[in-house]
Every structure is written in structure tokens, then in C-alpha cells.
Write a structure and sequence with these properties.
Strand content: under 5%
Strand order of the largest sheet: 1-2
Order of helices and strands: EHHHHHHHHHHHHHHHHHE
Number of helices: 17
Distance between the termini: 8 Å
Helix content: 55-70%
Radius of gyration: 26 Å
Largest sheet: 2 strands, antiparallel
Structural class: mainly alpha
């Protein structure tokens, strides 16, 4: 018995030769297809919409207007729109810049530093996240879950910071040595779980989580030790990094520093490593199927150990960037959450080097804009954390996004293949 199934075809553009689709029609269908870029964009849109609802719910004045919503709905809707628009406007101004500041710069009443200050903050927050995000993404491409980017970044802070205030080296060399020490410290901390995975089969998630706690406790203990603690202070803080070892900033009063340039170079390096090097081929092969890779003659154990060392070195660079470019001294909280945020950055960037860079810039923009939103609009900075979490949730659930927006399948049906016989 033979059945014929007609496959739905995309409508042909009017006036096209032989019923073929026009370029504009194909572009529109591809734009609305369920590809990773569209899903990512729509995930951000959904997070912003939910964030707007949370902004309204958290404001008692606006909520009071909803008590008589049925009588005068315009009051509640207008107040909600004003609150949301002002809050998100402050978020954008704090991340990219205020048009009024640029206008003041152009007419001579302001400075370019004031105009580019918000963008400087965005890049400053993003720089360490690029490194920790790459550390997670690179390991994942090799089939490993590097949950230890936080611990590796902390060790990078320790080794980079100690080198920064210990060695009396000239300008340039001091910075280079401090950054190298940060990378080596992180590489060593990443090599440990890689070696345990290769030799004993210990799961890297467990070992890296335990090493996160170990590094945090080590840092808290070190900053109180003689020779490391600032002799003029009684609280938990180290000596200040020598000026020669600090990452140079741009524009004098701006906080953005050389770290963002190094982050872009690191992204290019990881992209080359993955796509152009022999080791990149090996780690991708191991990540896809370690048994097939082993059969092909690739040493899985060696790949695991080396991969985690490289990933740890990247996270260590992120920690060194934090202490040499922003904090200038060691404290128990010097690394913040750059390692844990790196996990989200890698996920948002879909474990691709350049995608990770863009995701880090987005997170940096949210953090910088959130500071202004809190200062000017009174919206809690915690909303930024909620937005980040929502974005990642929707990224991790693409089927939900596709269902909400009714996205088409990624592959389009070619005109002509209309009958399937079985």
C-alpha cells in the first residue's frame, strides 16, 4: 500500500520566476526560524518583559493604583509605563552612556570622560567574565564541566596579587610577571581535577566544587598573614599592588583598563585553539565521543589534564585581571562571583568563544546599568541578578521559547520535494 504525504511548502513570493521564493521572503523565514541566535534574542526579550512586571510589583505606589483599576485603568497603566520606561532608560544609560552627557561634551560644558564613563564601567565588569566564561566554555567543548572557575579565579587573584606587590620590577615587566603568575596559579588549580579525572576517574564537578571552597578559605587565611596583610591595617586586606604591576587604564579617570584588550585577544586565541590547532581537534573529538577518540589513538587522559590546565589558566587570568586592574589588593571577596557568573556567560554564549565574549559584555552592561538604575530609579540591584537568571533559564529551555513564540523549524522545506512515498 502506497501513501502520499504532502509536505507543507513555504509560499512562493508573488511575481517570482517559476514560483520561487524571493530573497526577502527567504530572509524573513530564516529570521523567524528557531535558530540559536533568534532563541537567544527572544530569551532576552522574555527576561526583560518579566523584569518589567517585577518592577511594577515591587513599587507600592504603582500597585496602589491597581486597586481601582476597573474604574480608571489609565492611572495604573500610565504609572506602570512611566516606572518601567524610566528604570530601563537608566539601565541603558548606565551601561552605554547618557545622551545628555554626550551633548554636554559636544557643546563644551562636559568632558568625554563623563560621556564614556558608563561604557567604561561595562567593559570593566565584563573583562574578568570573558576569561572565566572561556574557561568554562573550553572545558565543556572537551566534555568536562568546569564548575571550578571560581576557585581558579581566586587562586589567580592570590598569585597575581602577591606577585604584584612582592616583586620590585620595572613597569611593563612587573605587570607581565603578575599576569603570568595569575595564569600559572589558575592552571595549577585546574590541573588538579584534570589529573584526578584522568588517573582515577574522579568526577570533575565534585572535585572542582571542593576546590572552590578550598581556594576561598585559603584566601581568607592568607590576607591575615604577616608579610601579606597590609601592616597599616587591622582588617583582612593585603598590601597594595605596586603601580608598575597594575593594568594601565584608559583616559585617566576611567576605570576601563588593558584587561578588556587582553580578554579580546584571549577570545581570539581560544577560537584559534578550537578550530585551527591539532589539540583543538583532539579535545573536540574527546568531547564528542571519548571512546571513538581513544580508538583513533588520542590520549583521553592527557587531553583531560591539559584541557583543565588551560581552562584553569584562563580563569586565573580573570582573577589576575580583577586584582591588578580593579581591586589592587587582596580581600576575602576580591574575586566576587566572577567564576560563577562565568558559568552563566558560557551558557549564554553557547560555549562558543565569540558568543562568550558577547555574553560577558551583556552581563557587564547589566551590572553597570543596574548601578545607575538603583541610584536614580530606586530599583534594587538584585533585579539585575533576576534578569541574568531569567535569560539563562530561557536559554537553557529553548523548547519553551519556541513554543511561546511559535517559531518555525530551523530547516526550511525546499520547493519541489513535496511527495514522500512509503
Amino acid at each position: 500500500m502506497t501513501t502520499e504525504t504532502t509536505t507543507p511548502q513555504a509560499p512562493a513570493a508573488k511575481g517570482g520566476p517559476d514560483g520561487e521564493e524571493s530573497l526577502l521572503s527567504r530572509f524573513t523565514q530564516n529570521l523567524w526560524a528557531a535558530n540559536s541566535v533568534m532563541v537567544t534574542i527572544l530569551s532576552i526579550v522574555l527576561a526583560v518583559v518579566i523584569g518589567a512586571i517585577l518592577i511594577v510589583v515591587s513599587d507600592a505606589t504603582v500597585l496602589a493604583k491597581f486597586a481601582y483599576f476597573t474604574a480608571r485603568p489609565s492611572d495604573a497603566l500610565t504609572a506602570s509605563w512611566d516606572l518601567i520606561s524610566v528604570a530601563y532608560a537608566d539601565l541603558v544609560k548606565g551601561a552605554l552612556g547618557d545622551p545628555e552627557a554626550f551633548a554636554a561634551w559636544f557643546d563644551g560644558t562636559g568632558t568625554w570622560q563623563q560621556a564614556f564613563g558608563p561604557l567604561s564601567e561595562t567593559l570593566t565588569y565584563a573583562a574578568p567574565l570573558v576569561f572565566t566564561g572561556l574557561a568554562v566554555a573550553l572545558a565543556f567543548r572537551g566534555g568536562l564541566f568546569n564548575i571550578g572557575a571560581q576557585g581558579q579565579a581566586v587562586i589567580g587573584c592570590i598569585t597575581g596579587g602577591i606577585a604584584g606587590f612582592t616583586f620590585g620590577l620595572p613597569v611593563g615587566l612587573a605587570m607581565l610577571v603578575a599576569m603570568l603568575c595569575g595564569a600559572l596559579g589558575g592552571a595549577l588549580w585546574g590541573f588538579i581535577p584534570g589529573l584526578l579525572k584522568a588517573r582515577t576517574g574522579a568526577h570533575e564537578v565534585i572535585t572542582t566544587i571542593m576546590l572552590n571552597y578550598t581556594s576561598a578559605l585559603l584566601l581568607s587565611w592568607l590576607v591575615l598573614q604577616k608579610g601579606i596583610q597590609d601592616p597599616d591595617r587591622t582588617d583582612a586586606i593585603s598590601k597594595t599592588v605596586h603601580e608598575a604591576a597594575q593594568l594601565p587604564s584608559f583616559g585617566g579617570v576611567l576605570r576601563v583598563h588593558l584587561g578588556i584588550v587582553l580578554a579580546v585577544l584571549a577570545t581570539a586565541g581560544v577560537a584559534w585553539l578550537l578550530n585551527r590547532s591539532a589539540f583543538g581537534f583532539e579535545l573536540r573529538a574527546v568531547g564528542s565521543n571519548q571512546h571513538a577518540a581513544k580508538t583513533a589513538g588520542i590520549s583521553v587522559a592527557k587531553t583531560y589534564a591539559l584541557l583543565m590546565a588551560i581552562a584553569g589558566g584562563l580563569a586565573g587570568l580573570g582573577g589576575a585581571t580583577q586584582v591588578l586592574g580593579t581591586a589592587y589588593a587582596l580581600t576575602p571577596a576580591v574575586a566576587g562571583n566572577i567564576g560563577f557568573d562565568g558559568l552563566l556567560v558560557a551558557l549564554l554564549g553557547r560555549n562558543r568563544p565569540w558568543g562568550t565574549l558577547l555574553a560577558a559584555l551583556l552581563f557587564g552592561a547589566l551590572r553597570a546599568g543596574g548601578n545607575r538604575m538603583q541610584s536614580y530609579s530606586g530599583i534594587s540591584l538584585e533585579l539585575v541578578t533576576v534578569l541574568q537568571a531569567l535569560i539563562v533559564i530561557f536559554i537553557a529551555a529553548p523548547a519553551l521559547v519556541k513554543a511561546i513564540f511559535r517559531l518555525r523549524a530551523t530547516r526550511l522545506t525546499r520547493p519541489g520535494a513535496s511527495l514522500v512515498k512509503g
